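$ fold --in a.seq
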Amino acid sequence: MARFLKSRKKSHGTPPGSLIFIGNKKMEKPEIYFMLYNKDSVAEQKAESLDEIPEVVPNGSVLWLNIYGLQDTELVSRVAERFNIQQLEQEDILNTDQRPKITGDDNNLTVFLKVLEYRPEIEKVTGDHISIVVGKNFVITFQENIAHSFEPVRERIRNGKGRIRKMGADYLAYALMDTLVDMYIHTIESVGTVIEDMEEEILTQTQKSTLEKIYRLKTNVGFIRKNIWPVKEIMFYLNKTDTALVDKRTLAFYKDLNDLTLQALEAVDIYFNMTNDYLNIYHANVGSRTNEVMKVLTIFASIFIPLTFIAGIYGTNFQYLPELEYKYSYFIMLGGMLILAAVMLYYFRKKDWL
């Protein structure tokens, strides 16, 4: 299965807005959780059906609805109908291969992002699709699988820490995106540590396993880069938008989040260039090692050329060779050949060819 693109055979030829799940089924049955909170109280619950979700959000309160599992298109359609989510946005929610982006209208903003995690046991960066729908007094998150990515945000809501219970749905959306960007930086740091630790191995080793490690790291960095780069466009939109769904007090936090996103992108570019450099260094080392071998073989061939010449002369079949009748001819020839070889070795060493 392709890592950077997922199969779209099921949606091939269908009209825009068709509700077709694209991706791998990661849960047998979707699960629904919600939190309803204000500055004074918080209530959370696992719901068996959408009917248990409060239809009216009290003034001053925020509803956070979390849907785990995207394969139930009917459930997504019911949620969309209730919270006025556009048809095309529903299609993107169900498409786990959707590129990170932001869309919006007068009713809500919808942000599509990826949850990235580096798993050292398989030396691979994995990613899950997540959609965040922001309304006037609600936030809906659609996730592929049960994950604890947003648990720090839930704890802040439960404990009433910071300003999250005093702010609106736009600040909750900021807190969720901030958590994801923090995860991006942590993932980049984990992969970057592996890349930097390989520096000595790259400079000294030319085994095939080293090339395989470089390729895996380069693929991981490319995967991170593909999923983080569009986030810059999302941050630009949020910082320039004049929608009534984002309070002016929250804009300062989105500007800070934009800086954090740029920092992540800069780090990704650095590590991407490092993997390219590692690949070039590896090939240069392999070429240098091959040249060293060829040099040694050439030196030995150069030594044996004159020795072979001498041996060829005395190996001819002429009837009369005066040296053949001399008692010590063989020893003289052998000594001369050894002296010649020694002189050539001395010359090569003096020239620093050995």
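$ fold --in b.seq
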Amino acid sequence: MSRVAFVGYSYGVDPRLIGGHQSILRRLARYLTGRGHAVDFLVFGEPAAPPQRLAADTTLYTFPTFATAAQRLQHERYAYVQLSYLPLATYPAAMRYLASQRNRSDRPRLGYLYVVWPDKVVMRLARILLFKLFYDRVIAVSPRLQRQLNRYRVSSFTLLPPVPDDFFEPVARGDRPPRVAYMGRVDDDKGVQHILALLRGLKAAHPDLAAEISGYYYPHSAASLALHRELQAQDVIHYSGGSYHDYDPAMEQRVLNQLRHTDLLLLPYERLSGITVDVPLLLLEAMATGCTVLTTQVADLPEIVAQPALTVPHPAAMQAAAEALIAQRGWGATGERLQARAQELGVALSVAGPRYEREVGLA
């Protein structure tokens, strides 16, 4: 059995919270522990607390700083250490740890999970330099991140966010009024205002349509909290929302059930850079279930979806595209093509897990 450490800053990687990055790490941990490895989450930027057992062979440790987390890394015999989500202020401490490993004969393999495309060129180049200096393997979650790594000849591989295999199980959607939904973070940068206006318009044109917004908000963000309260106050669109602190192990099953009962999922990303997982996990989950997805032409999404009618230039252009999809009601054939595309991309955990284990040197 090998011991593995997933290391990162606070809310960005804390497996007790809702989020795409956290889901990727939880799923990789689940796969690895199922293969006989043990996984420790080392979350810094949090008050020190006693270790917390999250699942069989999965343990959470919290530390106030990266330097205190590095003390455990120095003394525990890990076979593989994977870093992700390191704020700029933590770079000096992280570089000291990484530099200390360079000449150790017994050091762990070092990996970095490259999740978010940095907004600024200087940050992209800084990361490339760190990747080349210190890491044995970099894991890119999108084609454009991988292309950048290839350009600079960084030892790396692509791992799109993995989706549990039960998302791919066949489901009969039945003959009923269409169900249109938005799922995800409730915030300005997710295009939720566009979705609210769009769903109100669709509901007015199609009174039998079931329209829903569900997701999570950040209590510490004024904009996110204001949107949450606005959605609570209206009664045209069904809204179910909670704090990002409200994660529980049954949430994955609830997401799966909701996607299986949704005909059209609206994902109006204005941009992905500097904000979220570069190929959003929810997009892949919806595709895996055969749910039709309408999204925007940002980053790699047109390449991932591979159906031009399902991507629009901007969230404001979603109204006409959604109307056309509702008129056609061809959910079955469109969803089947999306599911086949997800299978082609190899995002099923039974496919992605073994590849990850092999590429990071744990197989």
